Amino acid sequence: xxxxxxxxxxxxxxxxxxxxxxxxxxxxxxxxxxxxxxxxxxxxxxxxxxxxxxxxxxxxxxxxxxxxxxxxxxxxxxxxxxxxxxxxxxxxxxxxxxxxxxxxxxxxxxxxxxxxxxxxxxxxxxxxxxxxxxxxxxxxxxxxxxxxxxxxxxxxxxxxxxxxxxxxxxxxxxxxxxxxxxxxxxxxxxxxxxxxxxxxxxxxxxxxxxxxxxxxxxxxxxxxxxxxxxxxxxxxxxxxxxxxxxxxxxxxxxxxxxxxxxxxxxxxxxxxx
Length: 273
Ligand SMILES: C[S@@+](CC[C@H](N)C(=O)[O-])C[C@H]1O[C@@H](n2cnc3c(N)ncnc32)[C@H](O)[C@@H]1O
Hints:
This protein has helices spanning 19-34, 36-49, 66-75, 88-98, 135-144, 169-179, 189-199, 217-220, 243-255, and strands at 56-60, 80-85, 103-107, 120-126, 146-165, 203-214, 260-271.
């Protein structure tokens, strides 16, 4: 499969986007945070990270910051939750939303975190590594800022696990081939998380695939952009020549009650020795 990976993927360049596009991305992150299936993913990740009162924890690539706020509650009293993201606009939004929640947000790069070695008891990164060109360097940086005995938890999508039923096979295989992967540096990131933690020297590494499935295209659109009709045609998520047949097929499968779309998100965690 040949595909062109942009030098910097859209999620690495949120601040450079036209404001309407950025608003769309933020709305998508908010919908995702509220989605029951994503909540299952985050519950698995929370158990794997296992934050305790009094601990210092980091959500790296925190987006709009809601997980860091949950972490603040989990480490209270006496703990400290920090969220870092490359997007200054996301960090400003997270800070505004925090209100009285004792959480700190800062602009920062996963590849060069502005923290001393072994600062945190727990470090997590959710759906960030797929957008980074040097994921192992990012993992090494997450490990660097985790204390000995502390936990690193990674969450990421495996876009090549994306599959469906109820849609024409030939159309689906063209869509998947042309559309999946073109928006990430690492479309199979989810399945590689365990190996990356092992190679980074972590011990007691565990992993868990969380399957997400949808029978309604609007619900699917929360996690799978190919089902998101509000993304304009010119954004290119659905290849232009497949736009009409794709939406006709989705409508037909939905009307027949036959649509099924599924994708796997992986959670992996380990302990820094
Ligand atoms: C798909 S969003 C996920 C946000 C959040 N973790 C969540 O699960 O809702 C990817 C986030 O990673 C951030 N990001 C991308 N590259 C980054 C980097 N090198 N350092 C820090 N954050 C980065 C983006 O700004 C964006 O907020």
